[in-house]
Write a structure and sequence with these properties.
This protein has 315 residues and is of the alpha/beta class. It is 34% helix and 16% strand. The protein is globular, with a radius of gyration of 18 Å. The relative contact order is 0.16. Keywords: Hydrolase. This is AB hydrolase-1 domain-containing protein.
Length: 315
């Protein structure tokens, strides 16, 4: 029988951070870091799989998301806080060293933590997001209706989202982000106009899953999720001198829209990641979407467990 996922709150750097965890840590600990519009629940399939294999799975709600406390409104979102939160979580749980698995913007603190604290990281896995040594130059390469440009504008996404209830907003984002095309609004449109209730959910995402997400976003709202990541993208740390001392594994869904960002395309074609990560593995999942870990959990779980097995504690 599958082990039950347990929930707790940890006092982390002035905030109560919600952490879901499962497993006995026989082979080590894996920390899962979600993106947007995700939450700890995004890792439900991976958490149970790694726990069954002998690992302890730890999945926090990022500060300001889900059941975690929101930072004060006057406090600007900072990428450095996310990596510092990971360190504090490991310390609070008495975990000396862990694998980091990041998805979407959660890849950034996974990379940053491994660079800052290589002695505490066994390896880094990123789903869909290559390592970037600095902010992405979006302004010149993408049209005005590009969703990130829209959501970076203070008040615009709030007004767009505010036309609907939270469940409808999360539903629309999941529909849009599961596609292979980059979400771009036309003149006179907002991002929420790109899908309606007649558009079916992805086959692998149930109404019950949507209920779970909606309940968590009812709690947190969208204020901080719009700050982090969208209004903090220009503040990604400059890491042009980065060199990973731990193994790095990049899993790319071939039907994920993110690799179509011009900066990511250019970086992958130039072999940019190899310059920063000497021990690098890249795998492409042919049918994988932006939500590959929820869409194809068995494939992703097999890839993760293979990577972990290749880097045991004694290595």
């Amino acid at each position: 029988m599958a082990q039950e996922i347990e929930h707790t709150h940890l006092p982390i750097r002035g905030l109560n951070i919600h952490v879901a965890q499962v497993g006995k840590d026989e082979l080590g600990t894996v920390v899962f870091l979600h993106g947007f519009p995700e939450i700890w629940y995004s890792w439900r399939h991976q958490m149970r799989a790694v726990a069954a294999a002998g690992y302890r799975a730890v999945a926090p709600d990022c500060r300001g998301y889900g059941l975690s406390d929101r930072p004060p409104e006057h406090e600007e979102a900072a990428w450095e806080d996310l990596a510092a939160d990971v360190l504090a979580i490991l310390d609070a749980l008495d975990v000396p060293k862990a694998f980091l698995v990041g998805k979407d913007f959660g890849a950034a603190p996974a990379y940053e933590f491994a660079l800052r604290h290589p002695e505490r990281a066994r390896g880094v896995v990123s789903l869909g997001i290559p390592f970037s040594p600095g902010p992405m130059p979006l302004d010149d390469t993408m049209p005005e209706g590009f969703y990130i440009k829209r959501w970076r504008e203070p008040g615009r996404a709030e007004a767009d989202f505010g036309r609907y209830d939270v469940r409808r907003v999360v539903r629309t984002i999941y529909v849009l982000f599961a596609r292979a095309e980059i979400p771009v609004a036309k003149e006179g449109q907002e991002i929420m106009d790109l899908a309606d209730l007649s558009t079916p959910l992805p086959a692998w995402f149930t109404e019950q899953d949507l209920d779970a997400y909606a309940e968590l976003y009812e709690n947190s709202g969208f204020r901080y999720p719009l700050q982090m990541p969208y209004r903090a993208l220009h503040k990604i740390p400059d890491r042009r001198d980065a060199r990973f001392q731990v193994p790095v594994f990049l899993v790319m869904g071939e039907k994920d829209y993110c690799p179509k960002f011009p900066e990511f395309q250019a970086g992958m074609k130039s072999g940019m990641m190899e310059k920063f990560a000497p021990d690098l593995r890249i795998t492409y999942v042919p049918e994988g979407s932006h939500f590959v870990q929820e869409q194809l959990p068995e494939q992703v779980n097999e890839l993760l467990l293979g990577f972990f097995k290749d880097h045991p504690v004694a290595a």
